[in-house]
Specification:
Elements (H helix, E strand, L loop, with lengths): L8 H6 L61 H19 L3 H9 L3 H4 L12 H7 L14 E4 L4 E2 L2 E8 L5 E5 L14 H12 L4 H10 L9 H36 L9 E7 L8 E8 L5 E8 L3 H5 L8 H7 L1
Antiparallel strand pairs: 1-3, 2-3, 3-4, 5-6, 6-7
């Protein structure tokens, strides 16, 4: 029988034939058999009850529940009061000058800090000192008006060794006009020389300007040698960086407390960026950029940019024997 003609040819031929065996029937993986589990025949073999846990070790239902914290919204009157307090604080800062505002925030007082900022230095005429010593008695012979000052001894920069001498008995006593700075070295620089370096740097000048100033004031014919000036700069750099970092950290803490009164989000402050160069025009080699808080005027960060190095200028040349050692230490 050919089958129903309404079916396809392959379908008609499929009827009445034996089903073919699958080609991979013998190699097909069988389902793994599970181990048999022997159940207890009676209920007596089952444990009567589970061991009881202490109360502190028992699982608590509340341990898995997350506490819900609802957002507390301010009323319109509270928001208005906060805005008014912020406005009054900003108006109070804007009503004072920039210098007084910074000194007030940092707690600087000229009346108390002027004496406690270290040694004080005064430029004195030696002739005026000799006139003052005319009324002083000599401690050795008791003669009056016989004490005179002598400055013809050694001098290191602005530090001079002066002596007080009696013209009657010849008694003499000498001392330096400045104390030495504290440090780990055996011989540390004089404080007056370090302060002179920092002072001349603060006005954007160098060792040549310092020597010209001292020569004009008849203090000394040469204040500091250029190599001594460069050597002391490395000492003052770390101290200046530490002082700047301490001042900026203090300014950040003050600004944080101030913006809490403004009800401002943490870290959201108003700042401006300002920069200055050593000289006018576009030929300056040294500049500094500062990030300044808008309301207080306090500096919270800075960066120094320079394409000029005085150490490379005064250092040895490439053909010098000590150039390799100097370059490694520079």
């Amino acid at each position: 029988m050919g089958g129903d003609i309404r079916l396809k040819v392959n379908t008609r031929r499929a009827y009445g034939k034996k089903r073919k065996r699958a080609w991979n029937k013998g190699t097909a993986s069988r389902a793994p058999s599970l181990p048999s589990i022997s159940l207890p025949e009676s209920e007596d073999s089952l444990p009567r009850s589970l061991p009881e846990l202490p109360e502190e070790e028992q699982p608590s239902v509340s341990a898995t529940i997350v506490d819900r914290i609802d957002t507390a919204y301010l009323t319109e009157s509270e928001e208005a009061q906060i805005a008014e307090n912020a406005r009054l604080a900003k108006d109070g800062l804007a009503s004072t000058s920039a210098t007084r505002r910074k000194f007030s925030l940092l707690g600087v007082c000229h009346e108390t800090d002027a004496v406690s900022c270290g040694s004080q230095f005064v430029i004195v005429d030696i002739a005026s000192l000799n006139e003052l010593m005319c009324s002083v008695l000599c401690g050795s012979c008791g003669a009056s008006g016989s004490l005179i000052f002598d400055t013809s001894d050694r001098s290191y920069g602005l530090a001079t060794k002066i002596g007080m001498k009696c013209t009657s008995c010849g008694a003499e006593r000498k001392t330096w006009t400045s104390r030495r700075t504290k440090g780990e070295g055996t011989i540390t620089p004089f404080e007056v020389n370090v302060r002179a370096i920092k002072a001349i740097q603060s006005i954007g000048k160098g060792v040549t300007a310092l020597n010209d100033f001292c020569a004009t004031m008849n203090l000394t014919h040469q204040a500091l040698h250029h190599k001594t000036f460069q050597h002391h700069l490395t000492r003052t750099k770390d101290a200046c960086m530490a002082a700047a970092l301490q001042s900026e950290q203090r300014s950040v803490e003050i600004i944080k407390k101030l913006y809490e009164e403004f009800d401002s989000p943490p870290g959201n402050i108003d700042v401006i960026y300002d920069g200055t160069w050593m000289t006018r025009g576009r030929r300056s080699h040294i500049g500094v950029g500062c990030i300044v808080e808008l309301c207080t005027g306090l500096v919270i960060d800075h960066v120094v940019l320079s394409n000029f190095c005085l150490g490379c200028v005064v250092g040895p040349g490439e053909d010098d024997e000590t150039y390799a050692v100097w370059k490694e230490q520079h």
